[in-house]
Amino acid sequence: MSTSTGPDDETASRQGRRARIAAFVGTAVEWYDFYIFGTAAAIAFGPVFFPTFDTSSALLASFATFWAGFLARPVGGIVFGHLGDRLGRKNTLVATLLIMGLATFGIGVLPGYSTIGVAAPVLLVLLRALQGFAVGGEWGGAVLLATESGPRERTLRGGMFVQQGSPAGNILATLVMTLAALLPDDDFAAWGWRIPFLLSAVLVVIGLVTRLKLEESREFAQRAATAAPVKLPIAELLAHHWRRVVAAVFASALGIGMAYFVSTFMLAYATANLGVGRQVMLNLLLVNAVLQFVWQPLATRLAERFGAVRFMIGTLTATAVLAVPMFLLVGTGNPALILLGIGLSTIAGAGYYAVLAGFLAQAFPVAVRYTGISFAYQLCSTVIGGTTPLLAQLFLNLGGGHWAGVAVFYVVLIGLTAGGVVTLAALTRRSAATAPVTV
């Protein structure tokens, strides 16, 4: 039996490819902005914005500032989800990118404590919150743009393109921060850390040009042509789909926490507690991000073949098993063994992460999908993602610098994630539990 591809299929495939590329570029820019803040919080913000604290307390204060962005993310998810479900995905994503770019540039020119006193950390928190507000609407909209524009059998693959934005942004952020860190310590503390923030203006322009050329997502346009938008998407979501929201929050836990656990907490732990050079650790994280970027497309193909849920549970289990070996290897302080430890953990966890976006995109109906995926994911960001480096550092301090408590915390996070994946698959039945297979 032969099959033929009609004009509608060809149009959908072409539109899907453009949407995936645009979603990837824009999301990479957003995550670049977000990651440079996390890196700067780990190695630069303490003496600049909290010079009156001791080293450990300044680091905790920096991570608390880091969390401020996560507090604003659910608000951004609700606001931009409302706009995206009522007015469309494309224009909403242009707005999120602009807001993120302005906030990041603002951090780059913000005076330190020695210049404007307590106003410096206050303004830092406000600009970080603005970053979080923008990201709250960015991720869900990018996922829907990539998954709703192409053929349904490519949903997991479309979501993977958005997930590629995370390691790509991480690679960009680490490269630029690594170059800045080559400066003498005094110059880096005085002005060198600002360079990555200022360079984000160039990346934002590139992302805007890419997104402005896009069409509206196919599934949203089809629904808009036949039905009026829901008046209040968040009310509709919580009234009829709250169980899916709760399950999606837990299903997203490791996907959000893992990135900041490695790129933020591990960076601080290795440099402050193990004496690993700042430049060495940034290089290792760069290699690790490249590894994630290369692996995720391959992982998605495996998930399409074996089933999304089965694949996600398998990779989560592997991540839990590797938690203690990761800390043992990192604890040696040997760069090669550190890379082996975080690399193995990343391969396992990134397999689940690559599939997560497509998995969540299938969990909510089109009318409230932007609100649903954004609110659930960003609520998880606030409760779990933003607190991950803060809690990990707290457990490390309580353990007198030993990693055992941190490892237990990480394994519990993985267990909560696996429970969320299984529950969401059961609630959505075919939509999320069955992975589309591409022959």
From TrEMBL:
It comes from Amycolatopsis endophytica. Residues 19-431 form the Major facilitator superfamily (MFS) profile domain. It comes from the Bacteria. The chain crosses the membrane at residues 21-46, 58-80, 92-113, 125-146, 167-184, 190-209, 245-270, 276-295, 307-330, 336-361, 373-396, 402-427. This is Putative proline/betaine transporter. One of its GO terms (cellular component) is plasma membrane. It is found in: Cell membrane. May be a proton symporter involved in the uptake of osmolytes such as proline and glycine betaine. Keywords: Cell membrane, Membrane, Symport, Transmembrane, Transmembrane helix, Transport. Its main location: membrane. It is a multi-pass membrane protein. It holds the Pfam family Sugar_tr. Belongs to the major facilitator superfamily. Metabolite:H+ Symporter (MHS) family (TC 2.A.1.6) family. GO terms for molecular function: symporter activity.
